[in-house]
Amino acid sequence: MGYIIGVDLGTSGTKLAARGPQRLSFQRRPTVRGETLAARAVEQFLDWAEIPRNEVDRLVLTGVRTSFFTRPLLGLPTFTVPEFEAIGRGGMIAGVERVLVVSMGTGTALVMAGPEGCAHLGGSGIGGGTLSGLGLLLLGEGRPDRIGQMALRGRPEKVDLLMGDICKVDLPNLQRDMTAANFGHVAPDAAPEDIALGLVTLVLQSAGLAASFTLRGKDVRDVALTGALTQLPQAREQFDFMEECFHLRFHLSDTAAYATAYGAAVCPEELYTELKADG
Q1: Cα–Cα dist 101/253, whole Å
Q2: Distant-in-sequence, close-in-space partners of 99: CB < 8 Å, separation ≥ 6
Q3: Which of 142, 146, 147, 186 is most buried when burial is the number of CB atoms within 10 A of its CB?
């Protein structure tokens, strides 16, 4: 068996995962538009990962941009798979029967993954695109990684209204350090770093709240976090806090940013749609 290359053609980046007999490799590359640029991205990934082209069994593409693709890439067998299947399978956790996968990309998608397959339950328009757009408007900085670094020096009390600002004691399911209103208490001396933290908090907490509301009344407690926003330096702390508040188990792996690409690589063949040379 050779390598299967999963390619997640996202709106804000291209993620690639190589699944081979002896190792896994992951890489993020800029967003590509069109088959020629996608083929070049795959070729550069193979060079970087030192995978000879003749050892590649197939390419498996996913993401909304695949609707524009009609031909195989690099002369290799090329297939597409539904994005929500790739999201779900990429977020599955060993030893956990059923998990809610929260894919935090440009927007946020929620997919339930289990033995019966993957089901898209909904999503939100709040995600990396929100962080990038508002960061550009408010800070003059549109790169989420740079906003995250700025936010490390931010103070939440300078921008957000906390429960402790309006209540002296903890209420049931409402701790005093929980956010009562995002950007509801902006101080006159709020620094750009404070605003950056407010933006990061808004986006990450929105994803956590969406997961909590989605799982109300369900017996699922495990949530797999995937997508580019998992790389924010605040992600682990924010979701550890929400884990306590919402009584959920948030899982965040080191390779979570590439989960959808990996999910494409492990999708079963019955989900494949082949891209043929004749279009």
Answers
A1: 12
A2: 91, 92, 93, 112, 113, 114, 220, 222, 223, 224, 251
A3: 147
The torsion angles phi and psi of 215, rounded to 5 degrees, stand at: -95, 5
Single out the residue of 33, 208, 26, 231 nearest to residue 108, CA to CA.
Answer: 208
Residue 70 burial (CB count, 10 A): 12
What is the pLDDT at residue 154? 97
User: Which residue from 79, 13, 25, 73 is spatially nearest to 49, judged by alpha carbons?
Assistant: 25
HSE-up (13 A, CA, CB side) for residue 133: 10
pLDDT at 174: 67
Judge residue 147's burial from the number of C-beta atoms within 10 Å of its C-beta, 0-12 exposed, 13-18 middle, 19 or more buried.
buried
C-alpha–C-alpha distance, residues 217 and 221, integer Å: 11
Residues found in the chain: 279
What secondary structure letter does DSSP report for 11?
Answer: S
Looking at residue 113, its pLDDT comes to 96
Residues 177 and 42: their CA atoms lie apart, in Å, by 45
Q: What is the mean pLDDT of each run of 10 residues along the chain (279 residues)?
A: 93 92 90 90 96 96 90 96 96 90 96 95 96 98 97 95 79 74 95 98 97 95 96 96 92 95 96 85
Encoded tokens for 231? 């790389």
Dist. CA 103–CA 260, nearest whole Å: 8
pLDDT recorded at residue 148: 97
What predicted TM-score, i.e. pTM, was given to this entire model?
0.93
| pLDDT on residue 130 | 97
Question: Tokens 């330096």, residue?
Answer: 233
